[in-house]
C-alpha cells in the first residue's frame, strides 16, 4: 500500500499536468485557475498525462543529506528534465538506482515512481537514466 507524497501531481506511471485548450501551453505542477501565458489567460485548462521521458537539461549533485522534510542520502542528484513532447522542464530527484557521478547534460531519462525514502509508504516521481 503506497500513497502519493503529493496528491494530484502524478499517477503510478505518469506526471499529471494541465494543457491550455486555447494556446496549447503545458503546466506542471498542474495549473488549475488560469493559463499563465501572459498573451492568453484562458481558464480552459484540461488535465493531461505528461511525457514520461525526457533529457537532462541541468542537474546538481548534493554531497550532504537532504534537510527535512526532504529525503536523500548523500550523494544524490536533483535533475531538471526537459520533457520529450511538451518541452517543459520538470525537476525531480535522480533515482537511487542511477549513478549521480555518471550523469551528463542531454542524457535520456525516464520517469519512475519510487518510495520517498527507504521503507516509506509515500511515493514520489524520480528520474532514472535509460
Ligand atoms: Zn493559454
How would you sum up this structure, described in words?
With 130 residues, this protein is mostly beta strands. It has no helices and nine strands. Strands 5-6-7-9-8 form a five-stranded mixed beta barrel. Strands 3-2-4 form a three-stranded antiparallel β-sheet, with no helix packed on it. The model has no long low-confidence stretch (mean pLDDT 93). The protein binds zinc ion. The site of zinc ion has 8 residues, from loops.
Short descriptors:
130 residues; mainly beta; three-stranded antiparallel β-sheet; globular; binds zinc ion
Low-confidence stretches: none
Major β-sheet annotation? 5 strands, mixed, barrel
Tell me, briefly, the overall form: globular
> What gap, in angstroms, lies between the N and C termini?
27 Å
The portion of residues assigned to helices is: under 10%
Class by SSE composition: mainly beta
Number of helices: 0
**Beta-strand segment tally:** 9
Strand content: 35-45%
* N-to-C order of helices and strands: EEEEEEEEE
Q: What is the strand arrangement across the widest sheet?
A: 5-6-7-9-8
Amino acid at each position: 500500500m503506497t500513497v502519493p507524497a503529493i496528491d494530484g501531481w502524478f499517477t503510478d506511471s505518469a506526471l499529471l499536468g494541465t494543457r491550455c485548450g486555447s494556446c496549447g501551453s503545458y503546466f506542471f505542477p498542474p495549473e488549475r485557475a488560469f493559463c499563465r501565458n501572459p498573451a492568453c489567460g484562458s481558464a480552459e485548462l484540461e488535465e493531461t498525462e505528461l511525457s514520461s521521458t525526457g533529457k537532462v537539461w541541468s542537474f546538481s549533485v548534493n554531497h550532504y543529506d537532504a534537510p527535512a522534510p526532504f529525503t536523500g542520502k548523500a550523494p544524490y542528484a536533483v535533475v531538471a528534465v526537459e520533457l520529450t513532447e511538451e518541452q517543459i522542464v520538470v525537476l525531480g530527484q535522480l533515482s537511487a538506482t542511477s549513478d549521480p557521478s555518471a550523469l551528463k547534460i542531454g542524457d535520456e531519462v525516464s520517469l519512475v515512481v519510487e518510495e520517498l525514502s527507504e521503507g516509506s509508504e509515500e511515493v514520489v516521481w524520480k528520474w532514472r537514466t535509460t
